[in-house]
Design a protein that fits this description.
- This protein is α+β, with helices and mostly antiparallel strands.
- The model is unreliable at 1-98, 935-947, 1027-1035 and 1047-1069 (pLDDT under 50).
- Helix 18 (739-751) runs antiparallel to helix 20.
- The strands form five sheets. Strands 21, 22, 23, 24, 25, 26, 27, 28, 29, 30, 31, 32, 33 and 34 form a 14-stranded antiparallel sheet that branches. It has a ten-stranded mixed sheet with strand order 3-2-1-8-9-10-4-5-6-7, with helices on one face.
- The protein has 31 helices and 39 strands.
Length: 1069
């Protein structure tokens, strides 16, 4: 039965492992009490003639005393393994906060008389009690034995024991003796000493008569699927259950639950079942009747509230002084509320209300149900309050008939039933006699203007809350919403006045969105985008509503979630921290807000974005630092259909909801480009869309509104192109190397490996700075052919030197320098590798790229006069910098910097994993580019020598056998190639309309396609095809094509893609 009450949770709660240290380490490594001063503890070990006593004296020393027969020699043979410990030898032990605790696996013999089988248990002693569990992952104990119930611990070790060393724990639990066993003698003794020390300390405490705290709720309840009833008690924030009432009086529960980490709900009302959820398992309680279940429900919620101890809402509601006494019996300090009646009641009266139909009274805790308490609901409770409510409900109440705090539940129930269901004492509206429809019509007529107390009188007199004039007009709730009557809306909403909340299909979504709320002052402009003015803003019930001030009950405007399209943080010098909310309201109006506090603005953006987001990604959205967020449509290739998605842009990453309703992440640092299309082949068949291309995938995006598409495009373009001041804030290659580093290395590899004094000679400083500025503006679009190799080399070194943090990280500079001083090479290399392993990925990959490049340069030392020592000397100041960027004039420190780079250069294979295949590919590409530079590559089609270039065919999609050749040089961009191709086509066909064309790469007969971006180098694409020769027999069919974006949709619908000219890569000689 005990096992049935426990569960295996998803995560372990207790530390695993056994402590099996020798006794000489027992007191320092395990858990003997540290407060043994002025005491002597004796733990019985063994039995009969071989019995020994281990004592811990008043100075926490360990002694071995023999109580054996005269055959001392024989007894010595039975000494424990640590027999070298001298009698009375002192063992020093450090202080530790856990010396009075211990945990580990033990065997335990079952049965009250220890007459059942042995089972392996995870045992935990925390100094106050011993608990045991089925295993170290379970968080539901099988039994808890308080220290006050322990009387003695006895190590029952026999000379013949080999792997089952026992100790007995004597208790006052019906004088039961618990029998445990360990696999080792050490562990058994450590357990015995730990428990014995704790028992001794407890007995030293002065005896005090402490009256047990009376439980808030107690009684017998069936738990889980057991037919047996367990005794359950709730005291404060703790629930405990016991095998019997006797165990309760002794104080030895099976398990206890910290209620502040729990939640309770009615699981099956007809079967009178409650479900208590904790972070490690569910508990199910079954009761005899509904009334008992409701009482236990209230007690559990009170315990949870006690544990949470959050009185924020309660204190606000107490602003109305009449709410400090129960509306029904007058009891002081009530903390339950009927949210549809607008009253505050005590726990006992709340129990009666809870038994009513939810349309009569909806009971919620003022201390626990924080999700319910919207700003408007709190204000409604303060505005109505118990005094105003009772002015209606107790209008004709005879003196002496009101319920009293000490009344029985029967008397209390009788009174409350008459008051709210029978309406025996109510001040009913004059139209009451004409029926619900007449009251409903009156409710609609006054909902937009009446005081909330007048509305309350009509409503509780029996009005039909969903009444519509002529069955087609607005409900009272809709009238109040359109009129901006916030408190009227709230009262009607809580009394089922919102027609949408009654739809079962949206109830789950509404319930989740009800948790999203925020309020506070924001600055806001009007429709003409003029002066910012302060407004009290409230986000609740799926809408953002703003008021003139906090006291106003009539709004100046409201924005429903369904009208929100996109929210975006805006850099502005107008006022504070600015954000725009794009909507479909009134000619697609944009609402502009700002806050004086950056954190507040960020919280508003996240909360509004969370409200806008689909339920599947709502929680994820609320955890992102958002630049913009909004709805859009997206596809990942031209052949795919457009799908609805939700975008969240943060820093240099784009999160988008995929077809599985989960977020995918696109690292914009690794995007190769972004291009806007002005054609009408987007999802909406009109307006622009854009495509982002990366090394992983290409995505096509169109927002709900054209202006939002434009704003998204501008924000993402900036993120993709611009460079920051750190390595992490750079456009990156697929290998996480900054594009600026990759481009400079590639250019020097092609043009400068043999350049004399490369990296030692400096280029013209002004041109180096100009090049660096170009890189920082848009690294992808930089063309290096206008610069000398020395200027490119200077830009690379200057870039690395001017980073806010160095490649080797400033905060680790001291560690690297200290390691470099080690004379032991093996030790020094080990430290280097350790520090490299701790580097961020971008830093490590950047360093790897630089090191491999410098080795390439050094291989040409005989021509460029740059040895690895020279190169290390040039690069050390750029790669290693101190915390304060101090120049290292000290010869020893500077030499250590150089030695670090030298060591890494000389031991490349030890520090970096270099893929041989990647090396071969890169070498082939480099050789191909070098040969292109020399003009030794033949054109694949015309079979003629083209100086410094090769001829590459480009096919015009849709034109039969219509292709032209373009020249491809190492520096030629896609934009230049596109212009050349179109000009060649125009010469061949004067009627060709030159507009809306893009250049794209296609593989596998067009099954894979990738748009090429204007700033890309065509040679980077075409030369890589040379490395795919192993695929040719399988028909990889690489092609460059011109596509007219106006006819993309028609091509997508075609049976096959026609008229492509296969590009055959020529042999390189």
């Amino acid at each position: 039965m005990d096992e049935m009450l426990e569960a295996s949770p998803p995560a372990p709660h207790h530390a695993a492992g056994l402590c099996q240290s020798p006794l000489s380490r027992t007191l320092s490594s395990s858990s003997t009490s540290s407060s043994l001063a002025d005491s002597d503890l004796y733990v019985n070990l063994g039995c009969g003639e071989n019995r020994r006593l281990y004592s811990v004296d008043s100075t926490t020393s360990l002694s071995v005393r023999s109580e054996i027969s005269s055959d001392s020699e024989g007894s010595e043979e039975q000494m424990p393994p640590w027999q070298n410990i001298r009698p009375e030898a002192h063992i020093a032990e450090p202080m530790s906060s856990r010396k009075n605790s211990r945990d580990g696996y033990l065997l335990k013999q079952g049965g009250h008389n220890a007459n059942r089988g042995w089972r392996r248990r995870w045992v935990v002693f925390n100094g106050a009690s011993l608990s045991y569990y089925s295993d170290n992952t379970s968080q539901v104990s099988i039994r808890i034995i308080p220290i006050k119930c322990m009387t003695e611990v006895e190590a029952d070790i026999k000379p013949t024991d080999k792997d089952n060393f026992r100790f007995k724990l004597h208790t006052t639990l019906k004088n039961r003796i618990f029998l445990f066993a360990s696999d080792t003698r050490d562990d058994c003794l450590n357990w015995a000493l730990t428990l014995g020390a704790a028992i001794t300390e407890y007995k030293k405490l002065p005896v005090r008569e402490v009256q047990p705290e009376k439980p808030d709720k107690e009684g017998f309840v069936r738990i889980n699927s057991s037919s047996k009833k367990y005794y359950v008690s709730i005291t404060g924030p703790t629930l405990q259950y016991y095998h019997s009432l006797e165990d309760y009086h002794i104080g030895s529960p099976i398990h206890q639950i910290d209620m502040k980490l729990a939640s309770v709900k009615v699981k099956e009302r007809k079967k009178c079942k409650l479900q208590l959820a904790t972070h490690y398992r569910y508990f199910e309680f079954t009761f005899d009747d509904d009334s008992e279940m409701q009482n236990w429900y209230m007690a559990m919620e009170d315990a949870i509230a006690e544990g949470l101890a959050d009185d924020t809402v309660l204190e606000k509601v107490y602003d109305n002084l009449s709410n400090k006494n129960c509306a029904d019996c007058g009891a002081e300090n009530p903390h339950w509320a009927s949210i549809n009646l607008g009253i505050v009641v005590c726990k006992n009266c709340a129990g009666v209300h809870r038994a009513f139909d939810y349309r009569v009274s909806k009971i919620k805790s003022l201390r626990m149900d924080t999700r319910v308490w919207t700003p408007s609901l709190i204000e409604l409770m303060v505005t109505i309050g118990n005094a105003n409510a009772n002015a209606f409900w107790e209008f004709t109440l005879p003196p002496g008939m009101k319920a009293q705090p000490k009344d029985s539940m029967e008397k209390r129930k009788e009174y409350i039933t008459k008051k709210y269901i029978g309406k025996k004492f109510s001040n009913l509206h004059e139209l009451h006699s004409m029926g619900p429809q007449a009251l409903g019509k009156e409710l609609v007529s006054v909902a937009g203007s009446a005081d909330v107390l007048d509305l309350m009188k009509i409503l509780f007199s029996g009005a039909q809350v969903l009444y519509r004039i002529n069955n087609c007009g607005q409900t009272a709730y809709e009238v109040a919403k359109d009129s901006g009557q916030r408190l009227n809306m709230e009262l009607l909403y809580q009394n089922s006045g919102d027609p949408q909340s009654q739809l079962e299909s949206v109830s789950d979504e509404n319930r989740l969105r009800e948790d999203i709320r925020l309020q506070g002052y924001l600055n806001k402009t009007g429709p003409m985008r003029g002066k910012f003015e302060s407004r009290w803003c409230v986000l609740e019930h799926g809408s953002l509503t703003y008021y003139a001030n906090e006291k106003s009950t009539t709004f100046k405007g409201t924005i429903d979630r369904k009208e929100m399209c996109m929210i975006q943080s805006v850099e502005s010098d107008k006022i504070g921290y600015h954000f725009d909310l794009s909507t479909t309201m009134k000619e697609n109006r944009i609402f502009s807000f700002s806050s004086d506090c950056k954190e507040d603005a960020g919280e508003w953006i996240r909360t509004i974005a969370k409200l806008m987001a689909p339920i599947a990604v709502m929680e994820h959205v609320g955890m992102i630092d958002i630049k913009f967020a909004g709805a859009a449509h997206m596809r990942e290739s031209l052949s795919q259909d457009w799908q609805q998605t939700f975008l969240v842009f943060s820093w240099r990453g784009l999160n988008y909801m995929n077809r599985d309703l989960k977020f995918d992440y696109l690292d914009l640092r690794k995007a190769s480009g972004i291009k806007k299309q002005l054609t009408g082949d987007g999802y909406q068949k009109q307006g622009p869309y854009f495509v982002i291309s990366s090394t992983v995938k290409s995505v096509y995006i169109q927002a709900t509104l054209p202006r939002d598409t434009e704003q998204m495009f501008l924000a993402l373009s900036q993120a993709i192109s611009e460079s920051g001041r750190t390595l992490h804030d750079q456009p990156l290659t697929s290998k996480s190397v900054p594009v600026i580093v990759d481009k400079c290395i590639a250019y020097i590899t092609t043009h400068g490996l043999k350049e004399k004094g490369i990296y030692r000679q400096t280029g013209q400083l002004s041109r180096v700075q100009t090049l660096l500025d170009e890189f920082r503006k848009d690294a992808h679009s930089v063309v290096l052919t206008n610069y000398t190799v020395h200027e490119v080399a200077g830009a690379l070194k200057k870039f690395l030197r001017e980073l806010d943090d160095s490649v080797f990280e400033r905060n680790n500079y001291g560690n690297w320098i200290e390691a470099a001083g080690s004379k032991d090479e093996q030790h020094r290399m080990g430290l280097y590798k350790y520090y490299l392993g701790r580097m961020p990925e971008v830093n490590r990959q950047t360093l790897k790229a630089v090191i491999l490049h410098l080795l390439d340069v050094a291989q040409n030392e005989h021509e460029n006069s740059m040895s690895i020592t020279n190169l290390a000397t040039c690069f050390a100041p750029s790669l290693l910098r101190t915390q304060l960027d101090e120049l290292q004039f000290a010869s020893e420190t500077a030499s250590r910097e150089i030695s670090i780079i030298l060591d890494i250069l000389k031991n490349r294979d030890f520090f970096f994993k270099v893929d041989e295949k990647d090396t071969i590919v890169e070498n082939n590409i480099r050789d191909a580019l070098l040969k292109m530079k020399k003009g030794s590559i033949k054109g694949s089609t015309d079979n003629v020598n083209t100086p410094s270039c090769m001829l590459t065919p480009v096919l015009l999609l849709g034109e039969s056998d219509h292709s032209v050749n373009i020249s491809v040089t190492p520096e030629k961009t896609v934009q230049d190639g596109l212009i050349e191709a179109l000009a060649n086509f125009r010469r061949n066909n004067r009627n060709l309309e030159i507009r809306n064309y893009i250049l794209e790469e296609q593989l596998f007969d067009g099954m894979l396609e990738r748009p090429l971006f204007n700033e890309e180098l065509i040679s980077k694409t075409t030369v890589r095809w040379l490395e795919w020769s192993s695929f040719y027999d399988r028909g990889i069919n690489t092609r460059l094509c011109l596509r007219n974006t106006d006819i993309m949709e028609n091509l997508k619908k075609s049976v096959r893609l026609e008229f492509f000219l296969q590009r055959k890569c020529s042999d390189i000689t």
